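This week, think about what follows.
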Amino acid sequence: MSLRWSRSIRPRCSILRFGAGAVSALAVALSGCLYGFAGGGLPNIKTVAILPFDNQTAEPALTKEVNDAVLEAFQSRLGLRLAGESNADAVVRGKVTRYDPDVPVAYQAGVNRTDVTQRQVQITIDVEILDQREGKTLWQRQGLSEVGDYAPPQEVAGRKIALQKLVNDLVDGAQSQW
């Protein structure tokens, strides 16, 4: 006894057309949801004044380096415009409280001597972001500290790494408040 099928089992073209149409409609609908941001932004904050960080360390270059890194991050990553302190929606102020440029991390033992092959820079800051219009602190951190590893004698490279990590922490902290 043989079994014969009266019709073949295969997908119908109308089902395929419906599926393709649904996918196309979904793609068009989703593309309408894509729009650009200038940055991560803060709600109701469009302008920022970044006051010079007070430098309580023996490294004079830190004042400019910290200020430049914070300014660049707030403009490019948060999409805020720079303004004077009296006109800004928000004010960033802080101080560099500690700078340790020479923390040994890795050693290599030799005959009658030990070489340090990896060091790290540690930078610690206190920082506050104040919403001037509301008169409240948006974000504040005391003792915010980061490190940057470097191979001696490239201390400046380690400092850049530590500064980038500090700025990332600052931006993340600012964004966590909305």
Notes: Residues 18-40 have pLDDT under 50 and may be disordered. Strands lie at 47-50, 54-55, 81-82, 90-110, 113-131, 136-150.
